[in-house]
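Milestone M4 deliverable, item 7.
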Amino acid sequence: MNITIRIAENDTDIAACMALRWTVFVEEQGVPPEDELDGTDVGCTHIIATDAGHIIGAARFKVTEKTAKIGRVCVDQDRRGHGIGADMISYICRNCDARRALLGAQVEAIAFYTRLGFSPVGAEYMDAGIPHQDMEIAL
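Output delivered:
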């Protein structure tokens, strides 16, 4: 594997991000399409992980008041468990020009984000029918 993580550069990259997100969130996890297509992609920076030019991971973030809000982190089903998600989160944290990062983790992913240094904040809540927990890290 020759994995590269970078900022999405053009409409083709963004379309590939959206296609991967659709597969992971709508098709695999059953997230309603209207929740996946939440209207906040405009204004976000999109991150992609590629292998031999094919997008295998995606995430987005937006910085407001020195806080990077990370979301829509996903990895192609065949590539999970190889550190790609962790590498994308690390890339965002190193390159977002913020003092802290915040994300809404699916409860089943809390241990993953804890290993990356994130801590739970507040109470669990439901988002798109899936239990979530806000988590944050100082950068």
